[in-house]
Write a structure and sequence with these properties.
- This protein is mostly helical.
- The chain has one domain.
- A three-stranded antiparallel beta sheet has the order 1-2-3.
- The chain is elongated and about 45 Å long.
Length: about 90
């Protein structure tokens, strides 16, 4: 989220880079190959963080704003859309 201080494009890119499973999976594979338990633990915590973010609706960010994700809008906008779906 610190990347958003440099603007929405850099913010979204840095957030998305840190919240994809590619890097923690590479770290996990390297840690298993080298026998480094600390790095393996870090990789597992990182993967759990990403999974929890997805479970509560925080997806990868679009340049249009922090609340616009590939899983749908966050906050009040998403609450309104759920209300509309329930009324139909």
């Amino acid at each position: 989220m610190i990347g958003y201080l440099a603007g929405p494009r850099i913010g979204a890119a840095s957030y998305n880079a840190a919240h994809t499973t590619v890097f923690p999976l590479l770290l996990l594979a390297a840690s298993l190959g080298l026998g480094n338990a600390m790095a393996a633990g870090l990789a597992l915590v990182w993967l759990a963080h990403i999974g929890l973010d997805r479970a509560v609706g925080y997806g990868l960010k679009y340049v249009s704003g922090f609340n616009d994700t590939h899983l749908g809008p966050l906050g009040r906008a998403s609450e309104r859309s759920r209300v509309k779906l329930c009324r139909v």
